UniProtKB/TrEMBL annotation, chain A:
Pfam families assigned: DeoC
Gene Ontology, cellular component aspect: cytoplasm
Gene3D superfamilies tied to this protein: Aldolase class I
GO annotation (BP), single: carbohydrate catabolic process
Keywords for this protein: Lyase, Schiff base
Organism: Streptomyces antioxidans
SMART domains: DeoC (SM01133)
Record's protein name: Deoxyribose-phosphate aldolase
Top EC class for this record: lyase
Metabolic or biological pathway: Carbohydrate degradation; 2-deoxy-D-ribose 1-phosphate degradation; D-glyceraldehyde 3-phosphate and acetaldehyde from 2-deoxy-alpha-D-ribose 1-phosphate: step 2/2
Keyword Cell cycle appears in the UniProt entry: no
CDD domains: DeoC
UniProt cross-references to InterPro entries, sorted A to Z: Aldolase_TIM, DeoC, DeoC/FbaB/LacD_aldolase
Lineage start: Bacteria, Bacillati, Actinomycetota, Actinomycetes, Kitasatosporales
Record EC number: 4.1.2.4
From TrEMBL, chain B:
UniProt GO MF annotations: oxidoreductase activity
Species name: Streptomyces antioxidans
Chain ranges of the Aldehyde dehydrogenase domain: 23-254
InterPro entries for this protein: Ald_DH/histidinol_DH (IPR016161), Ald_DH_N (IPR016162), Aldehyde_DH_dom (IPR015590)
Gene3D superfamilies: Aldehyde Dehydrogenase, Chain A, domain 1
Keywords: Oxidoreductase
Transmembrane regions listed in the UniProt entry: none
Coiled-coil regions listed: none
Protein name as annotated: Aldehyde dehydrogenase
Xref: PANTHER family: ALDEHYDE DEHYDROGENASE-RELATED
Domain of life: Bacteria
Short name of one Pfam family: Aldedh
From TrEMBL, chain C:
PANTHER family hit by this protein: ALDEHYDE DEHYDROGENASE-RELATED
Keyword Oxidoreductase in annotation: yes
Family, similarity comment: Belongs to the aldehyde dehydrogenase family.
Organism: Streptomyces antioxidans
SUPFAM superfamilies the UniProt entry points to: ALDH-like
Domain Aldehyde dehydrogenase: 36-485
Catalytic residues (positions): E266
Name of the protein described by the UniProt record: Betaine-aldehyde dehydrogenase
GO MF term list: oxidoreductase activity, acting on the aldehyde or oxo group of donors, NAD or NADP as acceptor
Keywords: Oxidoreductase
Amino acid sequence: MADVTASDSALRRFLHGLPGVDAVGLQARTATLGTRSIKTTAKAYAIDLAISMIDLTTLEGADTPGKVRALCAKGISPDPTDRTTPQVAAICVYGDMVATAKEALTGSGIHVAAVATAFPSGRASLPVKLADTRDAVAAGADEIDMVIDRGAFLSGRYLEVFEEIRRVKEACVREDGSGTAAHLKVIFETGELQTYDNVRRASWLAMLAGADFIKTSTGKVAVNATPPVTLVLLEAVRDFRAAVGVQVGVKPAGGIRTSKDAIKYLVMVNETLGDDWLSPEWFRFGASSLLNDLLMQRQKLSTGRYSGPDYVTVD
Amino acid sequence: MSERLSVLKTYKLFVGGKFPRSESGRVYEVTDAKGKWLANAPLASRKDARDAVVAARKAFGGWSGATAYNRGQILYRVAEMLEGRRGQFVAEVAEAEGLSKSKAGLQVDTAIDRWVWYAGWSDKVAQIAGAANPVAGPYFNLSTPEPTGVVAVLAPQESSFLGLVSVIAPAIVTGNTAVVVAGERAPLPALSLGEVLATSDLPGGVVNVLSGRTAEIAAPLASHQDVNAIDLAGADPELATELERAAAENLKRVLRPQPVDWTAAPDTARLLTFLETKTVWHPTGA
Amino acid sequence: MPVFEYAPAPESRAVVDIAPSYGLFIDGEFAGAGDGKVFKTLSPSSEEVLSEVAQAGAEDVDRAVKAARKAFGTWSALPGSERAKYLFRIARIIQERSRELAVLESLDNGKPIRESRDADLPLVAAHFFYYAGWADKLAYAVRGRSALNGTSGADPRPLGVAGQVIPWNFPLLMLAWKIAPALATGNTVVLKPAETTPLSALFFADICRQAGLPKGVVNIVTGDGSTGAELVGHPGIDKVAFTGSTEVGKAIARTVAGTRKKVTLELGGKAANIVFDDAPVDQAVEGIIGGIFFNQGHVCCAGSRLLVQESVQDELLDALKRRMGTLRVGDPLDKNTDIGAINSAEQLARIRSLADAGEAEGAERWAPACELPSSGYWFAPTLFTGVTQAHRIAREEIFGPVLSVLTFRTPEEAVAKANNTPYGLSAGIWTEKGSRILWMANKLRAGVVWSNTFNKFDPASPFGGYKESGYGREGGRHGLEAYLDV
């Protein structure tokens, strides 16, 4: 696959040679999968799996160390009334909150994910983006959620986007001499790429450049993760593993607020990718309010009563 | 024992799915055929007209983009909801037009059936107004009708309900949205129709109903650059000419007033007036 | 065992109340057959007897035709707008009772509840809704024809009594396709549902009651092929509408020869689903799957022949097999079932024999690992590769979940192979190239051509075949002409 990234024109030829996506057919497929009825034991399994896949997120200008610590506590013990509740996969914050989060999560095994590269717009020079990344990695981030330059992508400068991802990936290497690196999630902001063909091309571009995860959205624009867009990502990681032998994770983010939605995504993963991706190692939800809905559903399953917002914590 | 005092209804405009009073704060007295006071109706202003056009434009994308089947179901739902409030409309029409209960009943029944008639057109109009055109060359060529956009509708003055329905339904069934100026002297059935439309799954803004002086409200609508067509049914000849002239500024499609027997079965003329024909060419070749 | 195992999610059977026995619905009343004969209807997924149904004989059919004839005068004289309102009522009642009818359909037919709920029933209601709208617009529907007849402006005339015989694959939907246009145009009907799936038609009789439909306008006679033959041959009917096998269709064409009966036939098919190397591959795979496995392949327009361009054959087949592995076969009432039961023991035997012939003739058979229930009639989704035009499985309609894969090299070859069949009902084309889609569509001898989709139905869209797939069209404006004297 190295030759396809040898030049801008080779990369363009490759990306434009990927099979097209028929939008109507894609949407029809996700709609059909959305009718799957997940009940009783399957629902209990799916809810716990979904909780364990959450990148519990706070990305506000108003974030404070207090807010981040509260979120970390919630991630460790999502439902204080039920200790069997799984903990979340990661806490996702801005780079300057990494140290706070890292400290609050000590010993929990929960990762700290930091958004970087001039999140959410990506409008900064490469040196700034690399510095942003290194800063978060140095502060202890386990995972970096970078954004691609949608401007470059939409104007067809694919190699530039490719190089940027590659350089950020290099910047994820820890400078502590351990030889380890933070995991790189690459955000496409699919709401701005608009077409499913673009989403498929962006997926392959990012995977070729070394993405560990591909992620739909920042949560900061009007259209965030949708089932059809996520299905395109799932198909891409499936085909990429078949072609290259490398498994890449998927993270839909933004707009997933209910258990019902989350379960629909898990059904898509199950029926598109199967067992290999059904773990927090390979699939994540970027979400905040989703967690409480999952907890209320979980309480409903265990008590038989519908729960209410007063019975879950607000952090 | 004294007779119970009834609760009177405050009649309001219907704009964007909501029921505002006129921004002008004005009302005018509406009486029955014998001059007895019935209600104070909002006297809508130029600004109400402007707001109604904004609401209609906002609704156009969703309504014209809905499937024809969906639009048909909603128009049929209007008929269902009207049937349930038949008594109210019979009373209002009888008062408004000085008709007996039975004559008013016929007007209302015909109006309900008219919604049903137009409901059926939603997914059929393309089948009579569209065509596959056999062009001389290796091309697929298909013409389909599309809604023109926002239609200003001056409801007929002489038929407060049947005439009103007969001009609204054909405009909206194909996907247009409408700003309707109710008949000036008898606006109450039109304002009450808004209450039915609001509970018939019709998206807010598809139909907007204004009451007041027809000439005053019609002028800004006829000259409005974001209105695509105007039905002059409710304008007298002099006003109609003036409005048609104003409508020329952005080449609105104009339906001139003509004598119509509203009780007679309509043809497709009104339906087809507010449509554009779009023709698509596509090569055919292996 | 998979990590994410779906727990059973059965739709409740309690929403439908099936009586232990049903009579014939003639002139607004239920009554047993004159000779008292009955037959049992089974649930094909469990072989459980659902009910006992009257077997109509010649006298019963005659009674039904007479009732329809008697009702015809008043019904056809009603203003179209009044007939329209009856049909709108029926459409609405079907929408209201759709879950009950979906469960009933899945019980009697064996199809998955997901399909009866999300495809059959919405289409049934939509069909009545659509034709309701035509009832008072007939002059517009056939304007050109009327003008030629010198009757411009007048409503075209109905034919009279329609004898309608429908199949078991979409019992209620085929009923809707037959009854809605017939009633809209002012005809009255005698309808015979299939022997293995009579129940939804009998429930429809109850919907007619709720809608207040005048008695005799719709009559339902249940029975086997002999009942159908009585109906088709009855001198008192003016119109025959049949959906079913080409063999029976030909027999009907012979029966009506020399009469004034107007006939429409919607018969078998062996559709080619043609996939080019530039197809949107993931959606093509879904289209192939839906094309052949929808309704267990009991679909006359099923994409039973996959014609794949040689350059993408391996890639496509890999994807197809992977996808077939995720199909869920089993209890039709489980909301997660993709493939339900084969409709009857007889049909299962036919599928088995043709599949065996495929193997015997040298094609390679493949099916995903798939556990089938122990009672009822089942057949795993099956794929044959290495199929040629000469194989029986490429020529004969299997009417089951069996896909025959053939290859082609050029568009010309694809067209030649697709058309190389006595059938001509439908075809599919998968390519991102628009001009090729339209070129192919021109060349294909098939009544319906789907591009980058498959098995799409809509009441506004005409449906019907070329060649031995039948004649006449159902659906759309064209569907009215079969019921009008034009």
